[in-house]
Design brief:
By secondary structure, this protein is an alpha+beta fold. Helix content is 17%, strand content 38%. Strands 1, 2, 3, 5 and 8 form a 5-stranded mixed beta sheet that branches.
């Protein structure tokens, strides 16, 4: 009886794992396995890569931005419930509405909500990944 229960548990876990891995992301920006969303860039007339992200209690969506070193970047913040803003200290970029900077170094850099927005404020972060 105990062996049957163990075998059944293994089968259930395996089937669930196969289902979630095979279903994959339903859109180009959502990573369902990690829960993270990745921003999609557009190019404006100033040859900047532009991103638009929503800011609402207590999250940025998307919360990951990927750029190449040397790119000029503009991030527009859509404050949906209050004024959150964005603070990206490594590139000296801070504003309520949008930031612009040149991705001059590689690495992963955390951006933060600029304005106190309640109990989840300190966890309201996102990530910019700059690669070669």
């Amino acid at each position: 009886m105990k062996n049957n229960l163990i075998i059944l548990s293994v089968i259930v876990v395996a089937v669930a794992g196969i289902y979630f891995l095979s279903s994959g992301p339903k859109s180009g920006s959502q990573n369902y396995l990690s829960g993270e969303t990745v921003a999609v860039a557009s190019l404006n007339q100033q040859n900047q890569v532009m991103f638009s992200i929503d800011a609402k209690r207590w999250q940025f969506t998307p919360d990951i931005i990927r750029v190449k070193k040397g790119q000029n970047v503009k991030i527009i913040i859509n404050n949906t419930d209050t004024v959150h803003g964005i603070n990206l200290p490594e590139f000296n970029a801070i504003s309520d509405d949008s930031i612009e900077f040149t991705a001059s170094k590689t690495g992963e850099f955390t951006f933060f909500c600029k304005n106190f927005c309640g109990e989840g404020h300190t966890g309201m972060t996102g990530k910019i990944i700059v690669s070669e």
